[in-house]
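ESCALATION

Customer reports they have been waiting on this structure for their group meeting. Please prioritize. Original submission:
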Amino acid sequence: MERTFTDRAEAGHTLANLLDAYAHRNDVIVLALPRGGVPVAFEVARTLGVTLDLLAVRKLGVPWHGELAMGAVASGGALYVDEALVREIGLTQAAFDRVLASERAELERRERSYRARFQAPCEIQGRIAIVVDDGVATGASMKAAVRALRARRPARIVAALPVAPPGAARRLEEEVDEFVCALTPANFYAVGQFYADFSETTDDDVRALLAQTGPRGTI
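Update from on-call: job pushed to the front of the queue and completed.
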């Protein structure tokens, strides 16, 4: 039987143990991908004693199969599109544009909601950015997030994940400087299969965790 995490908090604590080289460093910032990545990243940042901030990203799901990612859009307008998949499913440009517009609107809504009681985005330039999610399947959201992050000129980008399929490192190696993952199980079907509790992380959950941070993302 494959190993599972109790919940996202335990996954974050496990992941932090793999990142101990970055503990208690002023030049390190942990960036959570909302919503599911926030409780994981919160535990990573708290365990390492470093700053926590958000990097909003939205998956672009195939219209008739929302869980299948054909790309993603991130804060700052960065866009990743799986062109081969879009061609394979025969999606029209108009249908793609509708999905993109909808997800951009939701991205903006979330940023307004989360930032209402949270600090302005932290400075990234010259720092080591550890990008955290609760797991990846296709890697589309992580790719879009990293592309948005590059524009802010970090010194180094680390993709940190509790679980990912075996090929994830290869798919992301051109995008990031380091890939850290606790589990890369062969029998991977979905991120949620590796969590005993994979209940939805809500906007209220995100705000509650962010409310525990200091004025500049310190925990």
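Sent to customer with the following note: The helical segments are 8-18, 37-48, 83-89, 93-115, 140-150, 168-172, 203-210.
Escalation resolved.
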